[in-house]
Amino acid sequence: MSESDQTRPASRQGFAALGQAFTKGKRRALPVAVLGLGLCATLSLTACDDPRFGWMRGGGPRDNTPGGYACPRPPDMFQAQGFGGQEREIRYFRHQAFGNDFFAQLELANRYNATNAADKNLEDHIESSVWLVMALANAEGYAPLNRAADPRRGGTMASRYDKCRDYERARAYKMLDTELSMMDSGERDKVRDRVIYILSTMGPDGFRTLARLYDDQYGPMGEPADNPQAIRAMMRGGDYGMANVRSLFERSDVDAYLYNYKAMETGDVGAYVLLKDFEKSAPDRAKYASFVETKAKRWVAPYEFYPPEAPPGGVPHSDESRPDDQAVYALSRMEELPFVHVVRALNYLDLLHTECEGPNDVPKQTIDGLRNMIGLPGGDRMTYLDRLRAIQLAAVNGDSKSQLVLAVMYSEGVGVEVDYARAFYWYQQAEKQGSPEARYAMSTYFDLGLQGVADQNKAEAVVMQLDSALAGFRPSVTRLQAVLNQVSRNPSN
């Protein structure tokens, strides 16, 4: 189905005015679990404990020499042949990793760690740490899968698959602690922010994982506190104590409550039950309720989309998050956005050097240039996602007009899901650069106290409207007079 076939009628008044001013469904589709839990269905569960398939302790990620205990990997998944093979591999693993595939996350961490000499051009220790955290926080890596009586342990229930995952997690913990030990606070902040962004794209499950990362009743990476790898990581001193890992997500009841609340806001029924359990799990937690509710209304993810940074010569990082049904519908509404705003964004990014009336007029060179900047492969036609990313990228890089457009998009649910906190954020960014339109829009937030994003403050609203009018934003002049007349009739306001 073409994009135009997916559009639905909706109001265009907000964008019409903007043009004149300056001329939830449920989760994503299931990922293909090539490297995930289907692994042992292919190789048989017994293979997971077969030393012929393991790595040597301390060996490389693709070292299949006998004696190790790691889970096996399908060998044909690792070596894409021909020109651009490495790039295709990385894009494949990123797609699977964003779908929360435990083994793809481990493999990405190994690639960015440059464990293998062939990956030296990909070396990026921040990105490696991100995927180590994601793997360690992934329940796929520690939740019991299959249990069988182990006669060597007197009949204790044990699974060979559980054993090989334990080995993978123990190794990942050591790698992560080493990576973090070489980072300054700014680099650690980048690791934390990227993890928060990825998990925030995963709906209620992602927010619940974030809550566990900050909850002191769980292990360092949100696993059960009695998990063997968590116990070793939490030990003080000794061979297994991992102070760097423990300090990455400082324990905080407020943050744990906040992310449980964000999970509940998605409409997930189970998240509401878990939120109530969280409140009862410690004596003082319930007292944060009103404070956290206000904080949650103003929460925004650390990034507009995943930062497309990359080491010199490496493949740019791409955002492979899976949109839910509401996000897909919002993206389909990009047809409502006057294309002139996309053209302005492309011009700001210095990607367009010709006149364009519509998406079909955009040169392939421009499309390829845009996609290179956001870490995606080139294409022949400009999609809705391309249009959205052009405006987002221009806004992130300081274009006040794109910031204003993006704010309106968040207000109306065009291209992106409705998010008043995010809309207010982008109005603020545009207003800081002197945009009278943004200043006037912000005044309506203070006038109404909309959705708890901005506290009601009529005096502040009048001041901002006055500033906007004096700056020459004509649509606010008559509205300003009406507000001033209302205030003069009722001084208590």
Topology diagram in text:
Blueprint: H1 3-6, H2 13-21, H3 39-43, H4 85-98, H5 102-113, H6 125-137, E1 148-150, E2 156-158, H7 160-181, H8 185-200, H9 203-214, H10 228-234, H11 243-246, H12 253-265, H13 269-280, H14 289-297, H15 325-332, H16 339-348, H17 364-374, H18 384-396, H19 400-412, H20 420-432, H21 436-448, H22 458-470, H23 475-489
Antiparallel strand pairs: 1-2
Give structural notes.
The chain folds into three domains: 1-25 and 324-427, no CATH class; 39-297, no CATH class; 434-493, no CATH class. The chain has 23 helices and two strands. It has helices at residues 3-6, 13-21, 39-43, 85-98, 102-113, 125-137, 160-181, 185-200, 203-214, 228-234, 243-246, 253-265, 269-280, 289-297, 325-332, 339-348, 364-374, 384-396, 400-412, 420-432, 436-448, 458-470, 475-489; strands at residues 148-150, 156-158. Strand 1 and strand 2 (156-158) form a beta hairpin. The longest helix has 22 residues, at 160-181. It is globular. The relative contact order is 0.08. The model is unreliable at 1-67 and 446-493 (pLDDT under 50).
